[in-house]
């Protein structure tokens, strides 16, 4: 594949991952090429099954789309509460923390209701509203457009926002964990935001339930082994055993802890 085509395809993938979909005409205008050139690029991108054409648009394939937030928030409530209790137990009164988007991060916010005088830097509006019920807390949010129905902020402005702060803890989730330990998201902006939080915190804490192991999302982030602590509800399937062994004492299974 020619270098110009490779660059175009990379840009198309980035735009579609950020926006969820875009018309062929808009892509042609954006990249300064003909619609026929864009259609040939899309032939290559659709061949691997990550994208699909829909009525003159290019979109992520259905199995690469994220589940609606309210549906995610209502699943595995017992597991997420157990994860959240362990994570909240790591964070003392008066701490400064980053808190990511996602339903498990929201569960952590709810579990922090007994904490006082927290400084919470987050792009998760639902988590911010939950933590605002304790008036001694300080809540810092980015500006920009609120993404609905997820009730969060993403984009390059959010990455810059997290870059302006330092925190003692970064608590974040992920869309999926590959067999090699790579963390994945549905948007590159989500990857960059999580990475900035992790890099700017003294201690990073990944909160995930078992279903994230083996789940695929198109945008790749850091490896799970780069995270300081991993809190999961239950051990994943057998193929992930070498990865769990590599994490050693850095991974905690919250439901097992509850039974001790």
From TrEMBL:
Keywords, A to Z, come to: DNA-binding, Repressor, Transcription, Transcription regulation
SMART domains linked to this entry: DeoRC, HTH_DEOR
Tell me the Gene3D superfamilies matching this sequence. Answer: 4-hydroxybutyrate coenzyme like domains, Winged helix-like DNA-binding domain superfamily/Winged helix DNA-binding domain
Among the GO molecular function terms of this UniProt record, one is:
DNA binding
Q: Where is the HTH deoR-type domain?
A: 5-60
What name appears for this protein in its UniProt entry? Answer: DeoR/GlpR transcriptional regulator
Specify the taxonomic lineage.
Bacteria, Pseudomonadati, Pseudomonadota, Alphaproteobacteria, Rhodobacterales
């Amino acid at each position: 594949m020619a270098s110009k085509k490779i660059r175009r395809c990379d840009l198309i993938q980035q735009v579609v991952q950020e926006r969820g979909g875009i018309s062929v005409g808009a892509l042609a205008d954006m990249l300064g090429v003909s619609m026929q050139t864009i259609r040939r690029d899309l032939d290559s991108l659709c061949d691997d099954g990550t994208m699909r054409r829909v009525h003159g648009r290019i979109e992520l394939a259905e199995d690469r789309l994220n589940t609606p937030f309210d549906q995610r928030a209502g699943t595995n409530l017992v597991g997420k509460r157990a994860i959240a209790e362990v994570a909240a137990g790591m964070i003392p009164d008066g701490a400064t923390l980053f808190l990511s988007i996602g339903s498990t991060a929201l569960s952590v916010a709810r579990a922090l209701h007994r904490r006082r005088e927290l400084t919470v830097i987050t792009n998760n509006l639902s988590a911010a509203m939950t933590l605002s019920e304790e008036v001694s807390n300080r809540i810092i949010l980015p500006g920009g457009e609120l993404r609905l129905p997820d009730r969060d902020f993403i984009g390059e402005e959010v990455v810059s926002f997290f870059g302006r702060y330092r925190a003692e803890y970064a608590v974040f989730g992920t869309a999926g964990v590959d067999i090699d330990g790579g963390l994945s998201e549905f948007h590159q902006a989500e990857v960059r935001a999580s990475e900035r939080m992790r890099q700017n915190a003294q201690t990073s804490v990944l909160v995930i339930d078992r279903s994230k192991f083996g789940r695929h999302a198109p945008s790749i982030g850091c490896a799970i082994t780069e995270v300081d602590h991993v809190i999961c509800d239950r051990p994943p399937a057998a193929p992930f055993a070498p990865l769990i062994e590599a994490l050693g004492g850095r991974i905690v299974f919250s439901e097992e802890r509850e039974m001790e």
